[in-house]
Amino acid sequence: MHIDHIGIAVKDIKKATETYSKILNASPTKSETVESEKVETVFFQTGESKVELLGPTGDDSVIAKYVEKKGEGIHHVAFEVDDIHAELDRLRKEGFTILNKQPKDGADNKLVAFVHPKDNHGVLVELCQSKK
Ligand SMILES: CC[C@H](C(=O)O)C(=O)SCCNC(=O)CCNC(=O)[C@H](O)C(C)(C)COP(=O)(O)OP(=O)(O)OC[C@H]1O[C@@H](n2cnc3c(N)ncnc32)[C@H](O)[C@@H]1OP(=O)(O)O
Ligand SMILES: [Co+2]
Fold it and tell me: Whose CA is closest to atom 40 on ligand 1?
């Protein structure tokens, strides 16, 4: 299991992309809207892991709610796993609150699922698995 990406919630993804392009001295490697999550994402490759900027596509986006309540900032950490179904079963048995009944389509050609921050000392954890 390794960190696949750090998700950062931002108000204005265009501005945030300019900022991170300067900080990382690099161009984004991918941008993608995930309508089911009402988010637009911009990825920067940083070694084996990525930075994922997350902007809301509407006021009803979880990102809009997060930014409204907590401001911009680190939103989640995503770990890549080989078998997301097995990992979710394992964590459910351990008593973790999994936020999805089934893994769902995420960005970057991944299946994703989330573990509630209340179980992880305040950190929203995403598990992701590359689609074959
Ligand atoms: C899928 C595309 C992309 C990818 O990588 O492929 C993504 O990563 S999409 C990322 C956006 N999608 C999600 O985050 C889905 C999972 N998130 C949720 O289901 C909700 O955001 C949830 C359940 C974490 C919070 O929703 P809720 O409606 O309960 O919001 P509240 O503001 O009432 O929060 C309750 C409680 O949790 C704290 N909270 C909320 N979000 C976070 C967070 N990201 N990190 C840490 N803590 C969080 C919030 O402050 C509240 O705490 P309290 O002490 O009660 O104030
Ligand atoms: Co993510």
Answer: 66
pLDDT beneath 50, residues of the chain: none
- Please identify, in words, the CATH class of the domain defined by 6-130: alpha beta
Which value does ipTM take for this structure? Answer: 0.98
Token digits of residue 100: 């999805």
**99, two tokens:** 């936020």
For ligand 1, whether the C-beta of 34 sits within 6 Å is yes
Q: Does the CB atom of residue 13 touch ligand 1 within 6 A? A: no
Give yes or no for a contact between 46 and 3, defined as CB atoms under 8 angstroms apart: no
Q: Is the CB of 50 under 6 A from ligand 1?
A: no
Domain boundaries, the chain: 6-130
